[in-house]
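As described in the Methods, two query proteins were run sequentially through the folding procedure within a single session, without resetting any intermediate state between them. The first query and its resulting structure tokens are shown here.
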Amino acid sequence: MSESLGQEIERLRKRLERERRARQEAEAIAERGTRLLYERAQGMQLLYTIADASSRATSVEAAIQVALDALCAYTGWPVGHAFTVTKNAPYPLVSMKLWHLDNAELFAVFREASDNISFQPGEGLPGRVLASGESVWVRDVTEESNFPRGQVAREAGLRGAFAIPVLVGNNVVAVLEFFAREFAQPDQNWLDVAAQVGTQVGRTFEREARHEADRANRAKSEFLSRMSHELRTPLNAILGFGQLLELEDISPEQRDSVRHILKGGRHLLDLVNEVLNISRIESGHMHFSPEAVHLGDVIRETVDLIRPLAAQRNIPVIGPSTNVDDRHVLADRQRLKQLLLNLLSNAVKYNREGGSVNVECTETGGLIRLNVHDTGTGIPAHKLQRLFRPFERLGAEQGTVEGTGLGLALSKRLAELMGARIGVETALGKGSTFWVEFEVTANPLEVADAAEAPVETTQPPVQPERTVLYIEDNFSNLQLIERLFARRPNLKLLAAMQAGLGLDLAVQHLPDMLLLDLNLPDMSGLEVLARLRTNPHTCEIPVVVISADATTGQISRLLAAGAAAYLTKPLEVPKFLATIDEVLARRNA
């Protein structure tokens, strides 16, 4: 009986022991689960804090400072520091001088050493992160051979270390490093959280890069608009008065001189536009109007323009030997002329004294190739890859070539945007042939005789008197319009050189039409237009904008704001007078 009781007691003891162990295991599991949930919650809170700070940060530095403080609070580590990646090879990693320090005095020497050191990829803790693109643990930096700051770390009492990459895509843009006063063992949960921290902070870099690009684009657009006005406005007077002289009764010699003035002025305008156009093309703001272009006319015009320059070096420019008068290509006429002029200019510039330039056309399979051949020295094979690049001037190293280095780059972009191909064939000692290949298109039908009649630029049919107000601060431009209106006795011109006065005159006289410059000393033309449209006395007056700003965006803005028409300087006199007639006719309808 006692033996059975003893056995029963033993069974009960073992059962209780099993239950106790099971309970302890369950408690341990529950504790680990609770700890894991807590750590994950802490990690999620950390990521939320950094993500929120990164989205609201006004700068990369502000976002990184939040990340340093938050990560040190999360780990309990006393030191956090940031390096940034620069283009200063071979030591691209430099301190951002951003820190989290629990004790600034204790870690002052280590801070100074870190702020004054830079690293190559693979060198030191930050360099290893830069080279691998991954996080790096160091159990004890004082025993690490690849840690140049080991001595000052030992003096500061630092041991464990950890560094993470800040990534934009696959590129490391910064490295955050953290230090503890005890040995550090890798923690997978910490590794997972840290990887996401680097990605979150990297978004701040991406956003700032986008903002910087936007600022650069805005500055570029403002520069183009300003330069378009500043450079084109003086040409308005040159070409405008030149066109007026063409309308006068002058001798053949004087008419020939005026013709050269206009050709030279328009050529200068083309050169000014070259710098503006290369930027417009790159920003997608270049407007093209493909049409059937008479190839013979374009070749003759550009050859005539380049001959005076070629004559200075005794270089004849020879046009096509084959008849191209009946050939048309699909292109933008203005851009085709600009492209050909660039090729001819280079053919003269890179030619030898007394050489020659030949323009030839060949046609195969619905394509016509325009060849510009020079008798220069040719282009070495190792320099061919530099052709068609902006600001590359072959021969500039010897000081023998002048120019912007934009001609061929602009020509290539113009050709591509018109659906054409451009290339070069060259041989040392024999010269070079630059060619551009266009699609041949049908000869457009002849227009009716009435449509072929020249535009009347002197006296249209007698019309009732009309008042036109011109708001313009450039006296030469005012004189030009006065001279033009002298040919239209039915047009009475009022002038104002300030926007405020112009608005007052508009209310007092209620002109039939208003001509408006945009760059006025006291108010922008856009604001003048807005005030005219909101005033019930002037809201119906048609406004024609006359400006040297020929950017497509500006034209669209003004037309959308209520302008009846937009004319760019330098003025084309026939187009200007036709626009005046058209706007006044609509006004009277």
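Immediately afterward, the second query was submitted; its sequence and tokens are:
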Amino acid sequence: MKVQSSQPPVVIPVYCGELCDSNLCNSSVIHILNRNIKDVSANITVGFGKFVHNPENLPPRILDLLQIAAYVFCADRLVYRGERTSINNSAWARSFEFHIPVLDIDFWSNSKVSIKLGEMLKFMTGDRQYKFSFGKATVSPIEDEAVQLSLFSNEYATIDEADITDVMLFSGGLDSLAGAIQRLNDYPKRKLCLVSHKSNHTTTHTQDIIVNYLQKNYYNRAIKYGFECHNKKNAPSREETQRTRMFLFSSIAFAICNCYKKEEFFVYENGITSINLPKQVDVINARASRTTHPKTIGLIREFFRLFDKNFDIKEPYYNQSKADILEVFRTYHEENIISSSVSCSRTRNKPQTTHCGCCSQCIDRIFASYASSLNEYDVIYADDFIKHIPNQETKHRLYNTLRLASAETAIGKNEFLQKYPDELMEVINYWSEDNPDNSLEEIYQLYCRWGDSVLKAAKAMQLKFDDLSIAYDKNSFLKMIAQRQYLSSPVQIRVNEIDSLLREAIPITFQSQKPKNENDFNDKVQGLLSINGSFSREYPVMQFGETAYKPDHAQDRLVIESKYLRTNTTPSVASEGIAADIVKIPSTVAGILFVVYDPERKIVKDDVFINSFTDKRDSCYVRIYR
């Protein structure tokens, strides 16, 4: 295998607004404009509801902020990251250089502002770089013609009693709905402005249903503020991860707060979702969403304090799990509204249902609903993984969820930190004002409670659906938990499957004629593995990195080496070969399996032979066949 050369990242220039001389967007350059300029037609739609009667009276830097947030969000969706299944895909992290005309050039040309903005977006998205070059705008972003509003729609959502109105981000998911219900109950004399993104018709419809319910049941104290921001058909979106959506969301909320002299808004998201520890260790960190990560919120807070030094972002659910969130509905007797919320990330792919039942959001929701015994109030899912797991991707998610819930958090606080040092330190530094040790303890206890809730949910599913009169579906969640598959590492599971296959197949294959030599044995082993599908990706993908080392068999970072003890081959020769391979095999592999064929029983004590190698390296396995 060849070692892949490291290419410098390609910086994608993004020209915005009046700087555009075209509306074309490709992998080399992007033009974004939300108004027609001369002969160039707009390629994004921006429609912020009027939270003031005269938007032109807003501070120029606030108008700039709204426009910058829209440009960044739309550019994010125009550049494809690459296939999500390709862990080694170098396209995942992108580099942008924005060229943006602004009204308040003195503010935006301050290097501290552009650096803070770039740092925030870089962490939020997992991209390599966000650079900004600001120039003086010559055209107002409010309107250039009487009939053409470029930032604000004709929709009004002004706040009449700002002094008793709180502002919060509202997606229509379980967490934000629980937050709205709790605030409306806990503060009966206050109102709530729900800031919502009109991302698609389904989401907007869901939000409208929920807000109408809240208005009816809480004396019109819920005010919906909706905004529109998306790419037009002449610049179709290529990337749907939408990692910059939080910047757009929070910029709207901050602008509303700034307008009404408020110094805080609320984000209701449970801590497990926000921290989002990688449930599979070898998944690149950038692929874990950081939308409401404590560091993301901290960096956004620091950025907004460049506008208002006293501004804050409140996170009431920062140390709660989703099962904890569901208890809010029980506390306030609002169980019936649970089914109206939408958590699914694939809503548009399932037009007949609101939830797919397979994405990570759906899986987390299902576990939480069973853990809190509120599953009867939950939605109907397109796929029911409990009785039959529909695909390998869903199987990976379920396995990883159970493994993190049981194996990872049962090791103790210090071991927990050793397992995820980089991820946890990024959380600890933005967790609370207490000392780091207290923060680590809180985070660890949060994950322990979450792990307990996941296992409690799995037990509840088992009690409800396990039928002793029928066999398990081989791809059912019931079989996964009954066999405790999640207690073994992915490598252990793969090794056990291969061992089971070879232990039955090798004696039959060679009962009449032994292999001619080790190469012949290798060919037969490869045939057995391929024909029986042992290398299908039954468990989390472990991509084998590019290296000069050539193993006998390898896939998904599991290496298999074969040894054949023939008539003139002594156990010591095989031992020397295995010892040499252990040294040569790169440290990047997830596991090594040595398949030793000893038809003449030259190895006297199998356990002694095996242990002499497995003690030398982690995830090293030796299996002897006769």
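The mean pLDDT is 85. We note this only descriptively and draw no conclusion about the first query from it.
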